[in-house]
């Protein structure tokens, strides 16, 4: 199941495109990276892929997932998971109930759903923490819980919006490795946007750098 972008860019009405057209095909289990400074349109790119563009923006080019054209589909029908800078968990739910919130509807029955959450907690190094208050988790534990909640929704592709940027160096390496290993194990394509060269290099996949908004688009030779 590949996520493919063909000549993809975004613009506001009567303005030039935010970034040069992107053509990229991300294979199952592969993590690609798009780099660039703040304001270049990285998050807008992810919103376009996920079907979450704000009013006023126009999408140009194509997006396909496993050969299916995503452009006409609403966000909830695209089966694309999102991870953000902040690992936000619902404060009124326990850790386990946070994960259960993301469970795919294909998992039915109380016992099956509880078993799926318990398995995810073990995978995330959070065994026995089903009833814990999310506020009691460390930063790394919250990040792992947030990732597992996203994966329990059974996404067909994953978008990563600088999810490691607020972690300290040691924890950043741990959570980055944890995230990428789960993506590879599940065989889903993933796209990371970042301004950090180390994050981009750690993907082991293709890296595209968007030009700064005040810098002319480089011409191809």
Automatic annotation (TrEMBL):
It holds the Pfam family ABC_tran. Keywords: ATP-binding, Nucleotide-binding, Transport. The keyword ATP-binding applies. InterPro entries: AAA+_ATPase, ABC_SmlMolc_Importer, ABC_transporter-like_ATP-bd, P-loop_NTPase. The keyword Ribonucleoprotein does not apply. Residues 3-221 form the ABC transporter domain. Residues 202-221 are annotated as: Disordered. GO terms for molecular function: ATP binding; ATP hydrolysis activity. This is Putative thiamine transport system ATP-binding protein.
